[in-house]
Amino acid sequence: MVDPILVADLVLDAALAAGADAVTIEPAGQPVGHPARYTIAVARAGELLAVSALDAQLAIHAIARLGYVCQVDPAATRMTTGRTRVRSVDAQRDLIVTIAPGLHPRAELMFVAPGAKQAMREPLPGERIGHYQILCRIGAGGMGDVYEVEHVTLRTRAALKILQHEVIERDAASRDKFLLEAQATARIRSPHVVEVFDFGYLPDGRPYFVMELLAAQSLGDILDRGALPIASALAVARQIAAGLCAAHEHGIVHADVTPCNVLVQRDRVKLIDFGLAQLRDARPLQIADQLAGTPSYVSPEQLQGHAAIEASDQYSLGCVLFEMLAGSPPFVGDTTAEVCLAHVRKPPPRPFSVHGEVSRELAAVIARCLAKDPAQRFSSMAALGQALEAVSCNP
Amino acid sequence: MQPVIVCVDDDAEIARTVAKSLKRARWSPMSTTEPEEALEWVLDNEVAVLLSDVEMPLMNGIELAARVKQLRPTTVRILMTGHITADAAMNGINKGGVFKFVAKPFVLADLETAVREGIELHRELSAVAVERDHVVRRGRVTGEHELRHPQLTTPSRAHDGAYVVRRPTNELVSGLGLDALLALRHRAQ
Predict the structure, then answer these.
(1) What's the 3-state SS for A372-383?
(2) SS3 track for A138-206
(3) How far is CA A375 from CA A69, A106, A248, in A?
């Protein structure tokens, strides 16, 4: 069986090579019943350059392929047009495909000079992105919108995150950061880090990645209802430490550990949103004019303009653990500047819990996480994890 | 097209009066005293609103609403009643998906307001149903395409979103009758 993708590629390749501006793919002659053949006519400025005949079924699937290339709705019942940029070894043009659907579909292709960038719009339920069909929008992360999707063949559900166009307009390097987030997350294999398994680009150039779908709520939402019992807080902290430990083993610093970036599904905790992650072997991120990290949990060294290091994640985890016990982070204030200044200068308060007395060991672990000098914190996230395992809930 | 309203009341006088009022409001009412006939009309026509009495012999309004909900969920159900128990109201909502109850005796203007809101809801429900059908159809079409020709539906793209055309070799596409395209490509190179 010949692949209609090859046929569609040959049509585009020949038309681009010859500088054609129009191609028509339609049933040959006046069909009675099912036409056996289709014709493909290539033209430039009204002059016919080539005509080929092709098996009807192959032509119909080649038309479908061209529709998918230009994001034409495959279930449309009326004539529909789509546009995308196409590039061959010879040329680059904007391709406009118009498909008249039906038993004997017909396609008209127009090639025009690459125009302004395509308008970015949000995908609608039912639309296809790569192998996935959009079901609904389920939220937004640091840089992107998140949709619930279904794999069209396997029928499995997943979450698909698309970089927000506002972020692209604000920050030209956001595409690279987004790719970095996907790469960072995909590299980590841990039950405590969300799994990323696919990456691609929309026709408008925006990148997306696909990750596991979790029926979970964020730790931030849970803490909105109040502090956790000491044993629960400790159990969550241990799992966050395990996820961060796996990330650090792969040379990845999360750099934005906050309650909103921790999902809790029953007793299982997963870290998400490596949007500010930094890879040891990647070029440093240029985060100009913006604060990397969330003020209540960001480390003093990040606030002083240094890149996040592994010990920075310990500091943020210390802040999160403090909030799980006390109901609010260690430093609060009326303004972001006030909070930032407190992170850099003010000694951290002693952790307390509304549910009982915090043991001396646990208080010591938190105090060490919250040390201003990264060198005074634990030697590694693994060491912090072990310390958390060793402490008891009871005073 | 005027929205079609089906009005059913075992009291023929009420059914006629309501229908007359709805006609004055420029809708297309159909009135009957038989719930079975009302159900047939709902099944055979694009009915926007079913307006039914609750207490009727053979089939009461809640049973009728439940049948309509099952068979034509986009037809909005409004029940008219002189007295109703809490149980009946709960059944109306839970089983019949009743949009509104209108108390008898009613002012015709109030009834018209309820019907107008029902028509608006019917429009929204119909639009959602059309969209849902389209999503299902799109999923089926792409599923069939992908099953027959894997990767057909998932063109890979470059960083800027452009579709990168692969150059098929002459051998791969030979014998398909596309010699004229191959020659065109060859001449241009």
Answers:
(1) CCHHHCCCCHHH
(2) EEECCCEEEEEEEECCCCCEEEEEEECHHHHHHCCCHHHHHHHHHHHHHHCCCCCECCEEEEEECCCCC
(3) 53, 69, 17
Query: pLDDT by residue (tens digit) across B28-69?
Result: 899 999 999 999 999 998 999 999 999 998 899 999 999 999
Q: CA separation (Å) from A180 to A161, A284, B147?
A: 13, 11, 33
Supply the ipTM of this predicted assembly.
Answer: 0.70
Collect all residues of chain B within an 8 Å Cβ-Cβ radius of residue A86.
162-165
Token pair, residue A5, equals 């993708």
To which residue do tokens 């159909």 refer?
B30
Nearest to B188 among A17, A73, A202 (CB): A17
Residue whose token pair is 């929204």: B124
Structure tokens at A242: 């395990």
The one-letter amino acid code at A70 reads: C
What size, in residues, is chain B?
Answer: 189
SS3 (DSSP) at A104: coil
Chain B interface disruption, residue of A47, A68, A89, A131, most B CBs within 10 A: A68
Closest to A4 (Cβ–Cβ): which among B139, B152, B177?
Answer: B152
**Cis before A300? omega within 30:** no
Q: Containing H/E element for B189?
A: none
| Chain B contact for A19 (CB, 8 A cutoff) | yes
Q: CB under 8 Å to A176, separation ≥6 — which residues? A: none
Q: Supply the DSSP string of A214-277, one letter for each residue.
A: ---EEHHHHHHT-PPPHHHHHHHHHHHHHHHHHHHHTTEE-----GGGEEEETTEEEE---TT-
- What is the distance between the terminal CA atoms of chain A, rounded to a whole angstrom? 73
Q: Is the pTM of this model over 0.90?
A: no
In the numeric block, which tokens belong to residue A310? 């592994």
User: Is A289 a known active-site residue?
Assistant: no
